[in-house]
Specification:
Elements: H1 3-32, H2 34-38, H3 41-57, H4 59-69, H5 76-109, H6 114-117, H7 120-143, E1 147-150, E2 155-158, H8 166-216, H9 222-264, H10 273-284, H11 286-296, H12 299-328, H13 331-336
Length: 337
């Protein structure tokens, strides 16, 4: 193995471990907190978490084996199953992010009618559509034998071995990425830009009230005035940062891989295997960033996982003190004698 391959293998192992830990923690928060389970977006986050966990235990390990051995890991049947799962899970996770953005759009733009427009039944219908949409492409690919080990990405994924099917495969790949990556990106941009517009409008209203209050309070201390203006600036930036993170991580993680898959279809441009694996690792990194972007850094999840951690630490301290008491108790009769 070259130094590049060792480095890529190390990065992939790191991504796999962090993805497993972070997504398991999200799952624990969901099971622990009744408040999180009551919320409709929790269903979309749960679906996204399961997709990321399955990706971390199915596709990532086989890609790691492909990098190390430079050949197909396991038999054809295993590779076909993992390729099917990889296509399904990637599409499902993209559509889950789009569903989360629709939920935020309804909550912010239509706050009074949110509970009537987004119920558990509506969320279940949206999830049913994402599953059907996500399963349709790998089913077609499996029926046409377009799943296999791709050396460029060192992974089991969409792959056409027959030259006579090249035109059909090109059309299929273009439609697949248009109805997964591009569709999700359009929905993300539309919904979050609408949310940003509403957030800026509310910020302007608050800014006007703040400035009027500061003008009326003539005797206010300069440090308090400066603090109010600083909070005003932070308020303007907060929504922009969050929305930039949602859209930015989606583009940064998925766009290089999707563009590489589309460029690969033309025989004009040569793509190195190192770049193919890097683009694949970037796509895998979305399974690492999702738990932090959508869950663990939010106040409710942060409070929940801190409660879980405190509970575990208290239980371990109680167990250790109990064991220490038991170790001392046999010595007491000896001391009395």
């Amino acid at each position: 193995m070259s130094i590049w391959e060792l480095l890529l293998a190390f990065v992939l192992v790191l991504l796999m471990l962090v993805a497993l830990l972070a997504n398991v923690l999200v799952l624990m928060c969901f099971l622990y907190s009744a408040d999180i389970r009551k919320q409709v977006p929790g269903l979309f986050i749960l679906n996204l978490t399961f997709c990321n966990l399955l990706m971390a235990v199915s596709s990532m390990p086989l890609t790691l084996a492909g990098i190390i051995y430079k050949s197909q890991p396991g038999g054809d049947q295993v590779c076909h199953v993992v390729g099917f799962l990889e296509t399904f899970l990637t599409t499902n996770s993209m559509l889950s992010m789009a569903a989360l953005s629709i939920d935020r759009w309804i909550a912010v733009v239509f706050p009074l009618s949110y509970h009537s427009k987004m119920r558990y039944r509506d969320a279940a219908l949206i999830l049913s559509y994402t599953w059907l949409h996500s399963a349709s492409f790998p089913i077609v690919a499996a029926s046409l034998s377009w799943l296999g080990f791709h050396h460029l990405y060192a992974s089991c994924t969409l792959y056409n071995k027959r030259p006579e099917d090249r035109t059909q495969f090109v059309i299929f790949t273009g439609v697949f990425h248009a109805l997964s990556f591009l569709l999700s990106l359009v929905v993300l941009c539309f919904t979050y830009l609408k949310v940003l517009k509403v957030a800026r409008f509310h910020c302007k209203r608050i800014d006007v009230i703040t400035m009027q209050t500061l003008v009326l309070l003539v005797d206010i201390h300069p440090s308090v005035r400066e603090r109010c203006l600083e909070e005003q600036r932070r308020r303007r930036q907060r929504a922009t940062k969050k929305i930039s993170t949602f859209i930015g991580t989606f583009i940064l993680c998925f766009a290089p891989y999707v563009i590489t898959r589309l460029v690969e279809l033309s025989s004009v441009v040569h793509i190195s295997s190192h770049w193919g694996i890097i683009s694949k690792c970037l796509a895998y990194s979305k399974a690492v960033s999702d738990p932090f972007v959508y869950s663990l850094l939010r106040h409710q999840y942060k409070k929940t996982w801190k409660d879980i951690l405190n509970k575990l630490l208290k239980r371990s301290s109680i167990n250790s003190s109990a064991l220490a008491g038991e170790s001392r108790s046999p010595n007491l009769p000896q001391l009395r004698e």
